[in-house]
Amino acid sequence: MNITDNIAYVGVNDHDIDLFEGQYDVRKNGMSYNSYVVFGSEKVVVTDSVDARFVDEWLGSLEAALAGRTPDYLVVHHMEPDHSAGIATFMERYPQATVVASAMAFKMMAAYFGTDFAGRRVIVKEGSTLELGDRSLTFVGAPNVHWPEVMFSYVPEDKVLFSADGFGKFGALDVEDPEGWACEARRYYFGIVGKFGKNVQAVLKKAAGLDIEHICPLHGPVLSENLGYYLGLYNAWSSYEPEGEGVTIAYSSVYGHTRDAALALAEALEKRGQTVAVFDLARDDMAEAVESAFQYDRLVLASITYAGGIFPHMSTFIHTLAEHAYQRRTVALVESGTWAPMAAKVMRGELEGMKDIAVAENVVTVRGALDDASRAQIEALADELSK
Ligand code: FEO
């Protein structure tokens, strides 16, 4: 696959993986680890490698793409092992090649491979350029998108941005994703990069000064058309702006009464014309629930009272939101508890550490099954959330 006349794709698709980064379920569509070759008139660059299980396949694709040419440089944008596992093997296979990366990336290479390739390396930083003859790479610092060593690079002659994990997406490239780009790119973003909104904003500002026709990420498809759409979503996501109006309802229920309250609230909101997404935190993909909480402007947390606090799945959900810098949203509370309901109080306390969270005035308390009093509270909360 060619991105331009001078840039080829040599990445791999992974359909064996169940959990990406040990926690994100990708069994449905797999994952891609992207690598590219830039052919200059004098020098050839390979960008990044792939996950350890696919290094041989990657080297085979690379050899075919090289068509007899020899790579001069391996540019390492990101050292996480899903992209860096093949570096040492590459360097053995191509003994004339030089590794090009940030200073911090070389420290990580020493940690992973026992060598920082002294004598065969070029350290680059913001604004450094790598000349390939008729083309060049200019490096753009992108610390913490997703690790601190990360750099993007830009090929002005082809208007190509290599964006590391930025603009990445779950899903292999040899399967059609009927949901389109945004759904799995959003789950990927908020799971993996979401905590680092400020860093993403900083690199987006730098990218705004570049003339870009193709964004080449380390996961997911190359983006070549309608780039304003993708950049707009990244701007919203990284600034913690809701992408749209809607209510995410996340619930933890044991005997079904909290679920009944969550579903009754969903129905009441839908009757009022609201978009609603409901998640059972014990059974649905928690990363989807996190994604939805960031996507929409309002969130409802519905939990049983458990051991004087909240149910473990709800606790994990709230902590995951906090870890990912959840902010600037309205949150409503639904609790259940037969003799001493405490969940709303505990959840309110957890929210206090988050920035710009408005807690809805109306709280729903279910003391057993739904009754007239709790149904009235649900209607009042639906009114408040629909204002
Ligand atoms: Fe795809 Fe942060 O590695």
UniProtKB/TrEMBL annotation:
Residues 247-386 form the Flavodoxin-like domain. In the N-terminal section; belongs to the zinc metallo-hydrolase group 3 family. This is FprA family A-type flavoprotein. It holds the Pfam family ODP. InterPro entries: Flavodoxin/NO_synth (IPR008254), Flavodoxin_dom (IPR026816), Flavoprotein-like_sf (IPR029039), Metallo-B-lactamas (IPR001279), ODP_dom (IPR045761), RibonucZ/Hydroxyglut_hydro (IPR036866), Rubredoxin-O_OxRdtase (IPR016440). One of its GO terms (molecular function) is electron transfer activity. SMART domains: Lactamase_B. Transmembrane segments: none annotated.
